[in-house]
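hey all, quick one before standup. I had two proteins in the batch that finished overnight and I want to keep them in one place so we stop losing track of which output belongs to which input. First protein below, input sequence then C-alpha coordinates straight from the run.
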Amino acid sequence: MAKKFFYVCTGMLCLMATYLLGAHSAGAAKAVTVEGASLFFSSSPRYSAVVNRRFCLDGQSPAFAPPIPGTDHVIATDPSFLVMLENGDVLQLQGSPTASWAKIGNVCGL
Protein backbone atom coordinates (compact mmCIF):
# COMPACT_ATOMS: atom_id res chain seq x y z
CA MET A 1 0.00 0.00 0.00
CA ALA A 2 2.85 2.41 0.83
CA LYS A 3 4.40 1.68 -2.56
CA LYS A 4 1.20 2.73 -4.39
CA PHE A 5 0.95 5.90 -2.29
CA PHE A 6 4.58 6.74 -3.17
CA TYR A 7 3.90 6.30 -6.91
CA VAL A 8 0.77 8.48 -6.78
CA CYS A 9 2.62 11.25 -4.92
CA THR A 10 5.57 11.07 -7.33
CA GLY A 11 3.23 11.26 -10.32
CA MET A 12 1.41 14.28 -8.89
CA LEU A 13 4.73 16.01 -8.18
CA CYS A 14 5.88 15.42 -11.77
CA LEU A 15 2.59 16.77 -13.15
CA MET A 16 2.84 19.88 -10.97
CA ALA A 17 6.45 20.52 -12.00
CA THR A 18 5.59 20.08 -15.69
CA TYR A 19 2.65 22.48 -15.40
CA LEU A 20 4.69 25.13 -13.60
CA LEU A 21 7.57 24.96 -16.08
CA GLY A 22 5.19 25.06 -19.05
CA ALA A 23 3.19 27.98 -17.70
CA HIS A 24 6.38 29.95 -17.01
CA SER A 25 7.78 29.31 -20.51
CA ALA A 26 4.53 30.25 -22.24
CA GLY A 27 4.62 33.71 -20.66
CA ALA A 28 7.99 34.47 -22.24
CA ALA A 29 6.59 35.26 -25.71
CA LYS A 30 7.49 38.79 -26.82
CA ALA A 31 4.75 41.11 -28.00
CA VAL A 32 5.13 43.22 -31.14
CA THR A 33 5.31 46.94 -30.39
CA VAL A 34 4.60 49.48 -33.14
CA GLU A 35 5.76 53.02 -32.37
CA GLY A 36 5.82 56.34 -34.22
CA ALA A 37 3.71 55.40 -37.22
CA SER A 38 3.71 57.98 -40.02
CA LEU A 39 1.81 58.31 -43.30
CA PHE A 40 2.96 60.50 -46.16
CA PHE A 41 1.41 61.01 -49.57
CA SER A 42 3.09 62.70 -52.52
CA SER A 43 2.78 60.93 -55.86
CA SER A 44 2.27 57.63 -54.05
CA PRO A 45 1.60 56.72 -50.42
CA ARG A 46 4.60 56.11 -48.14
CA TYR A 47 4.52 54.99 -44.55
CA SER A 48 7.02 54.33 -41.81
CA ALA A 49 7.08 53.04 -38.24
CA VAL A 50 9.35 51.38 -35.71
CA VAL A 51 8.60 47.77 -34.78
CA ASN A 52 10.55 46.34 -31.85
CA ARG A 53 13.26 49.04 -32.25
CA ARG A 54 13.61 48.35 -36.03
CA PHE A 55 12.77 51.08 -38.57
CA CYS A 56 10.23 49.90 -41.17
CA LEU A 57 9.60 51.69 -44.44
CA ASP A 58 6.65 50.86 -46.70
CA GLY A 59 6.06 47.57 -44.92
CA GLN A 60 9.67 46.34 -44.90
CA SER A 61 12.61 46.67 -42.54
CA PRO A 62 15.71 47.70 -44.54
CA ALA A 63 18.41 45.06 -44.07
CA PHE A 64 21.12 47.68 -43.56
CA ALA A 65 19.28 49.57 -40.79
CA PRO A 66 20.48 48.71 -37.27
CA PRO A 67 18.07 48.85 -34.30
CA ILE A 68 17.17 52.28 -32.89
CA PRO A 69 19.63 52.90 -30.01
CA GLY A 70 18.55 53.55 -26.43
CA THR A 71 15.40 52.73 -24.52
CA ASP A 72 13.30 55.88 -25.03
CA HIS A 73 10.04 55.30 -26.89
CA VAL A 74 9.86 56.38 -30.53
CA ILE A 75 7.03 58.92 -30.87
CA ALA A 76 7.39 59.91 -34.55
CA THR A 77 8.99 58.66 -37.75
CA ASP A 78 9.49 60.00 -41.26
CA PRO A 79 9.99 57.97 -44.45
CA SER A 80 13.33 59.78 -44.96
CA PHE A 81 14.82 57.63 -42.16
CA LEU A 82 14.14 60.06 -39.32
CA VAL A 83 12.87 59.13 -35.86
CA MET A 84 11.93 61.24 -32.84
CA LEU A 85 12.34 59.84 -29.35
CA GLU A 86 10.17 60.73 -26.35
CA ASN A 87 12.96 62.91 -24.90
CA GLY A 88 12.86 65.10 -28.05
CA ASP A 89 16.01 63.74 -29.72
CA VAL A 90 15.81 63.44 -33.50
CA LEU A 91 17.89 60.65 -35.03
CA GLN A 92 18.70 60.03 -38.69
CA LEU A 93 20.06 56.90 -40.31
CA GLN A 94 23.41 57.85 -41.86
CA GLY A 95 26.24 56.06 -43.62
CA SER A 96 26.55 53.28 -46.12
CA PRO A 97 27.16 50.35 -46.18
CA THR A 98 27.56 50.34 -42.38
CA ALA A 99 24.68 52.57 -41.39
CA SER A 100 24.19 53.96 -37.89
CA TRP A 101 21.71 56.25 -36.14
CA ALA A 102 23.10 59.76 -35.47
CA LYS A 103 21.51 62.47 -33.34
CA ILE A 104 20.87 65.49 -35.56
CA GLY A 105 19.09 67.64 -33.00
CA ASN A 106 16.46 67.98 -30.32
CA VAL A 107 12.98 69.43 -30.77
CA CYS A 108 13.45 71.71 -27.75
CA GLY A 109 17.06 72.55 -28.54
CA LEU A 110 18.38 70.50 -25.61
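OK second protein, same deal, sequence then C-alpha coordinates:
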Amino acid sequence: MNTQQEKRQRQFDKAVEEWKRKVSEQQTETERWQKEARNHAAECYRIKAQVDEAQQTIEALRKDNKNLNGTTMSSCVVS
Protein backbone atom coordinates (compact mmCIF):
# COMPACT_ATOMS: atom_id res chain seq x y z
CA MET A 1 0.00 0.00 0.00
CA ASN A 2 2.80 2.37 0.88
CA THR A 3 4.49 1.62 -2.42
CA GLN A 4 1.29 2.46 -4.29
CA GLN A 5 1.10 5.85 -2.53
CA GLU A 6 4.74 6.56 -3.26
CA LYS A 7 4.19 5.70 -6.91
CA ARG A 8 1.19 8.06 -7.08
CA GLN A 9 3.18 10.75 -5.30
CA ARG A 10 6.05 10.41 -7.81
CA GLN A 11 3.58 10.60 -10.71
CA PHE A 12 1.99 13.67 -9.16
CA ASP A 13 5.39 15.27 -8.58
CA LYS A 14 6.35 14.48 -12.16
CA ALA A 15 3.13 16.08 -13.46
CA VAL A 16 3.70 19.16 -11.29
CA GLU A 17 7.25 19.53 -12.58
CA GLU A 18 6.03 19.18 -16.17
CA TRP A 19 3.45 21.93 -15.63
CA LYS A 20 6.04 24.16 -13.96
CA ARG A 21 8.27 23.71 -17.00
CA LYS A 22 5.41 24.54 -19.35
CA VAL A 23 4.52 27.65 -17.36
CA SER A 24 8.13 28.77 -17.38
CA GLU A 25 8.34 28.30 -21.15
CA GLN A 26 5.13 30.27 -21.64
CA GLN A 27 6.38 33.08 -19.42
CA THR A 28 9.60 33.27 -21.40
CA GLU A 29 7.71 33.34 -24.68
CA THR A 30 5.29 35.97 -23.37
CA GLU A 31 8.19 38.18 -22.27
CA ARG A 32 9.82 37.79 -25.68
CA TRP A 33 6.62 38.79 -27.49
CA GLN A 34 6.08 41.74 -25.15
CA LYS A 35 9.60 42.97 -25.84
CA GLU A 36 9.03 42.61 -29.57
CA ALA A 37 5.72 44.49 -29.28
CA ARG A 38 7.45 47.32 -27.40
CA ASN A 39 10.12 47.50 -30.12
CA HIS A 40 7.44 47.70 -32.81
CA ALA A 41 5.58 50.39 -30.89
CA ALA A 42 8.76 52.43 -30.53
CA GLU A 43 9.42 52.06 -34.26
CA CYS A 44 5.88 53.25 -35.01
CA TYR A 45 6.39 56.34 -32.84
CA ARG A 46 9.68 57.10 -34.61
CA ILE A 47 8.06 56.74 -38.03
CA LYS A 48 5.10 58.90 -36.97
CA ALA A 49 7.51 61.60 -35.80
CA GLN A 50 9.31 61.45 -39.16
CA VAL A 51 6.00 61.70 -41.03
CA ASP A 52 4.93 64.68 -38.90
CA GLU A 53 8.26 66.38 -39.56
CA ALA A 54 7.97 65.69 -43.29
CA GLN A 55 4.44 67.14 -43.31
CA GLN A 56 5.65 70.29 -41.56
CA THR A 57 8.46 70.61 -44.10
CA ILE A 58 6.01 70.18 -46.98
CA GLU A 59 3.72 72.82 -45.52
CA ALA A 60 6.63 75.24 -45.06
CA LEU A 61 7.79 74.65 -48.63
CA ARG A 62 4.27 75.21 -49.96
CA LYS A 63 4.08 78.54 -48.13
CA ASP A 64 7.50 79.54 -49.45
CA ASN A 65 6.49 78.51 -52.96
CA LYS A 66 3.25 80.46 -52.70
CA ASN A 67 5.13 83.52 -51.47
CA LEU A 68 7.70 83.21 -54.24
CA ASN A 69 4.96 82.84 -56.85
CA GLY A 70 3.25 85.94 -55.45
CA THR A 71 6.51 87.86 -55.57
CA THR A 72 7.18 86.74 -59.13
CA MET A 73 3.69 87.70 -60.23
CA SER A 74 4.03 91.14 -58.56
CA SER A 75 7.33 91.68 -60.33
CA CYS A 76 5.81 90.81 -63.67
CA VAL A 77 2.89 93.22 -63.19
CA VAL A 78 5.15 96.09 -62.04
CA SER A 79 7.55 95.73 -64.95
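Flagging for whoever picks this up: The chain has a mean pLDDT of 92. Residues 13-79 form one domain.
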